[in-house]
Amino acid sequence: MVWNEPGRPHDAIAAPGVRLSPGEALVEVELATICESDVRMVRGERQVTTPLVLGHEQVGRVVAIGEGAVRSDGVPLELGDRVVWSVTVSCGECDRCLRGLPQRCRSLAKYGHERVHRGWELSGGFATHVQLRAGTEVVRVSEEVPSRVLAPASCATATAVAALDAASARVDLASTGVLVTGAGLVGLTAAAMAIEAGAQVIVSDPDAARRAFARGFGALTADPAARPPSPERLATALAALEARDVPEVLVAVETTGIPQSVHTAVGALGVGGVALLVGNVPPGSEVCLDPASLTRRLVTISAVHDYTGAQLRRAVAFLERSWRNVPFDELVGATHPLAEVDDAIAEAATGEFVRVGVAPGRRPV
Question: Which parts pass through the membrane (predicted)?
């Protein structure tokens, strides 16, 4: 399904044929989920070159393999492998790739973001199939885990891993106070991962249902819109941390991209704390910070964008061991057939569900 411009429905096109080069594979899509960035593109809030096939969160099955195609761990791909794959395609040879930043490769390509062109029509998840190019991190996944759990691994889950990796480079998460601003899928996943690592976590979000979900797996919660004397204030949650012998927040994961939320996340940090900026603040927005306060508190501010192949593998491992305890499948609303992708995106835009599904082929599990 090809998207051309805001206000125009998707067009169905047929790929004229798929020729796999060495290192490539063809995957039949089992389920794709709609990321907020897909919604923003359809609204015209992000500059992209059209026409393009949207969608970069999906799980599928390998149905054809080019010569030498391998998984992220170096094992050859096999027909029938159930897989997820990275949103990025990297060369592995440029200076950025060699510095451990393949997600910012000099010749970067991204699934769901590239203009449709001859030879790579099947470049996004809102399609029956996706052609995986050489340089894509491909991870085999368990047959037991529901597709509603696995599909977001290549975006939200792996990004959460990258955020906590950046935090762990500065702070030991065990018994540490962690504030997560925003209970979208990245925020909820980062909170669940931090709790698994032994952290005491506060999730701040205005949506009561999302706060309830976070409390279900052990997080404290706060409503950023709450005012005294409401017990939902952030100050109340911070006091609850102190009662648990956690005197201050040392990690803040900011996932909303809202300037006030960024200010809150950085301001909540104690001495030696680190703020991870994950949400995409709109271009041109500004966040006012007091340099003297940052200096006195020895605060580190770091940005996270996408992830590495190793982080995608760990994201899958987390989902495979935790999905029965943290019901991520409940965060996906209705699943629509591919022909109804416009209806699915409209539903996703309401914000009622954290994710909405698109199932191109047979019924997803």
Answer: none
Q: Is the dihedral of CA 118, 120, 126, 128 positive or negative?
A: positive
Claim to verify: residue 286 and residue 332 sit in the same structural domain: no
Task: Tell me the Ramachandran region of residue 182: left when phi exceeds 0, alpha when psi lies from -120 to 50, beta otherwise.
Answer: left
pLDDT digits (tens, 9 = 90+) for 335-352: 999 999 999 999 999 988
Looking at the structure of the chain, the number of domains it has is: 2
Q: pTM, whole model, 2 decimals?
A: 0.94
Q: What is the pLDDT of residues 163-218, one digit of tens each?
A: 999 999 999 999 999 999 999 999 999 999 999 999 999 999 999 999 999 999 99
Hey, which residues does 84 pair with through a beta bridge? 139
User: For residues 90 and 73, what is the distance between their CA atoms, to the nearest angstrom?
Assistant: 15
In a domain, 12, yes or no: no
What is the rounded distance in angstroms from the CA atom of residue 302 to the CA atom of residue 282?
17
φ/ψ (deg, to 5) at 124: -145, 165
* 328 bridge partner residues: none
Distance CA 166, CA 311 (A): 11
Domain that holds residue 59: 25-146+323-359
Both tokens of 364, joined, read 């997803």
Amino acid identity of residue 45, one-letter, is: E
CA distance 41 to 2: 13
